[in-house]
Design goal:
Length: 206
């Protein structure tokens, strides 16, 4: 016997429908993995036909982009907690970069485009307004007074862009792969000199 649509509990409106579709997509990612979860799996999970999902998300790319967006807030909170108590601005920048470089490819939601082989889509998302806002939020919440260091307005926006471009270069074409202490040494040696003219690098080892 065929299950009733929406498993017998239709959403009250479009916003609830989108939220439930995203939640179902996350369950499918957990069950099948980010490279095997399909829009048809999401439809089955919800007890609807694929056309119903397409009504709210015109493409698979758009649906899984929404899943990534839903995971951003959680990731920002985790990243801020990870660098809590670190006050040397250079070390904060290194750890923001290193932690994200290490985590995104392994995160079943944030790394959806990479694991699905859709690097062009990932590149667009990585440099989107939402990505800028997330990075700005992280910098605003860490234990560093960027304004006191000369980073306000346009300067802070440029710093955010710089960080995102560095992240994208690692995530979109990560060769050679680096992690752990080696990744952090590399970032301290080559990335921090680009910003040390106005930010004290916190006594990092060259």
């Amino acid at each position: 016997m065929r299950r009733p649509a929406w498993n017998g509990s239709p959403p009250l409106g479009g916003e609830e429908a989108r939220a439930r579709i995203i939640e179902a997509a996350m369950r499918c990612v957990d069950r099948y993995g980010p490279d095997k979860a399909r829009l048809s799996d999401v439809a089955v999970e919800l007890g609807v036909i694929r056309q119903t999902v397409y009504r709210y998300f015109p493409s698979t790319e758009e649906l899984f982009a929404a899943v990534g967006d839903a995971a951003r807030e959680n990731y920002v909170n985790r990243l801020v907690a990870h660098v809590a108590g670190v006050t040397a601005p250079g070390e904060v920048l290194v750890e923001i970069l290193a932690y994200t470089i290490e985590r995104v490819p392994r995160d079943p939601y944030l790394g959806l485009f990479l694991t699905a082989g859709q690097s062009d889509a990932f590149s667009r998302r990585a440099m989107s307004a939402a990505a800028f806002e997330s990075c700005q939020e992280v910098l605003a919440r860490v234990d560093v007074d960027w304004g006191e260091l000369g980073y306000e307005g346009r300067e802070l926006t440029d710093l955010v862009e710089f960080l995102l471009r560095i992240l994208l270069s690692f995530l979109d074409d990560p060769l050679p792969r680096r992690d752990g202490a080696g990744l952090r040494r590399f970032l301290r040696r080559w990335v921090l000199p680009a910003v040390v003219s106005t930010v004290d690098a916190g006594g990092y080892d060259r």
